[in-house]
Design brief:
The protein is mainly alpha-helical. The chain has two domains: 36 residues; 61 residues, no CATH class. Helix content is 51%, strand content 5%. Strands 1-2 form a two-stranded antiparallel sheet.
């Protein structure tokens, strides 16, 4: 006679690793869906506001532009770097209150990079 009421079989169940992986996979899918549907624009704007262009003084901006120009002259092609040099805007703090008052590009700061000028300029 077999006693079926008291068997020592353990119940079938999912392991903890499987549950954690499933939760992470669902979370990743939600983030990807939000990204592709435009739901991340507010978050991206907030991150750019925090880590974006912090105000600097004009001297620092000029030094950075001169550094751009020096790195361009050591490279054989300048098209990609030319775009960055011509379009990057520096938020300048003119009244030292910690916020950017005006934005200027390298050319607006009076920096002249001969290699970029020779390639057609900004």
């Amino acid at each position: 006679m077999i006693n079926l009421s008291k068997s020592n079989k353990k119940g079938q169940g999912l392991s903890m690793n499987t549950i954690i992986i499933a939760i992470l996979a669902i979370l990743v899918l939600v983030v990807i869906a939000a990204f592709f549907t435009g739901g991340m624009t507010g978050l991206v704007d907030r991150i750019k506001g925090i880590y974006g262009s912090q105000p600097i003084d004009e001297t620092q901006a000029i030094l950075e532009c001169e550094g751009f120009c020096n790195s361009y002259t050591s490279l054989p092609t300048v098209e990609e770097y030319k775009t960055n040099y011509c379009e990057k805007k520096f938020g300048l703090d003119t009244d030292n209150d910690g916020s950017a008052d005006i934005e200027k590009t390298c050319s607006q700061l009076g920096i002249i990079c001969q290699k970029i000028s020779d390639a057609g300029g900004c």
